[in-house]
UniProtKB/TrEMBL annotation:
Residues forming coiled coils: none
Signal peptide range in chain numbering: none
The name this protein goes by in its record: Aldehyde dehydrogenase family protein
Gene3D superfamilies, per the entry: Aldehyde Dehydrogenase, Chain A, domain 1 (3.40.605.10), Aldehyde Dehydrogenase, Chain A, domain 2 (3.40.309.10)
Organism expressing this protein natively: Demequina lignilytica
Amino acid sequence: MSGYAVTDPYTGHRHADYDQATDAAVDAAIAAADDAYRTWARTAAPEDRAATLRAIAGLLRERADEFGEIQRRETGKPTGHGAGEAHYGAGLAEYFADHAVELVEDMPVDTSGDGVGFVRRAPTGALLCIVPWNAPVHLSMRFIAPNLAIGNTVIVKPDPHCPGSAEALQRVMDDAGVPAGAVVTLRASNTQVAHAIADPRVAGVSLTGSRRAGAAVAEVAGRNLTKVALELGGSDPFVVLSTDDLDAVVETAFWNRMILQGQACCSAKRFVVIDELHDAFAERLVARMRTAGVGDPEVDDVEIGSLCSVEAAERVEVQVRAAVAHGATLLTGGERDGALLSPGVLVDVAPGNPVYGEEIFGPVATVHRVADEAEAIAVANDTAYGLGAFVFTTDPAQGDRVADAIDAGMVRINRGLDLRPERPFGGVKASGMGHAEGLRAADVFANLKFIHADA
């Protein structure tokens, strides 16, 4: 039996099993992607690639409800959340369609009068994209869109939890007229992935996932000099220094923690609150957690569905118990029922507590009391991760100062997470390397070729 299967984490029902690729199928996928790169991708006009991306976007929007149903069964997220993800994927396709011509225009370089120089953004080849389960359509499209726009081709390796989403996305590609091999779905094993990364026809590999998976992929890529981009999670601080509307800040905090049932790399996870606001913030966050609609993701008013599996919920449950055993106080939640986990709030999480520096991948927040700005920055940076951060203050100068001091790839001041296709996404430290989204995403696997000629 293949590891690729659709199992509803809420009901436990196993809907379907999918065959894993044979070694011959892996080679065929790489050959198809390489051939498409050398033919269609290198010869199609950017206007034609843009038209293909627009066709993809249209079908994603038309089939958004279908994707919502598939993801509910695969990951336990409410149906509307999965449909929204398809719409976001469509937005990514449209954004890079809008910029497809601009991306391949020659960029002049000053040669001090010595001829003419310019940089041309050229493709590099067939790429492997390893996709996680928590947002399979979004995270596939944020790689597919910029690379199709510049002329790379993409092999998508889905997570074993989400073969249905990958299959539906491949149908979109085929029905949109994407040439054979330009986007290929490959249900590969870890061993087969390693062989693909080592294959000289694969020009680069991108992974969104855990630090452990990222290290394994980077090791193979390094041995074979295969270019790599990694997005490996975060333990994003949400710093509250002052506010004129604590209720609004708490509501923002709630939703920024609960994105994808708390299973988003870029969600707020550690709430770093100035002493005079700490108790009121924690009290109101607890109250909001207790009113959250948790349950069957098929029900319209459910805000938080199940985690992606019973095992995932068990891991968070173990983390919460370990935190309490090491001196933390659980103010609410953290109770498991199958793959459901009630939203939780932990306080008194001191350095040395197992969850102090860990990423809790589920609907549990930690709230940290700090005396002043300097301590807030120190606590915010006291993590191996550096993906995103949030800063709330009534002092604009303080907001800029703190944002500059936090080690993160993205910082939002007095606002919550608001992903848009044009906004760069990436991190530092153990959160990875490379950017997704925004025009810089097209540079990650591009050849920025300098051309110098006589005038």
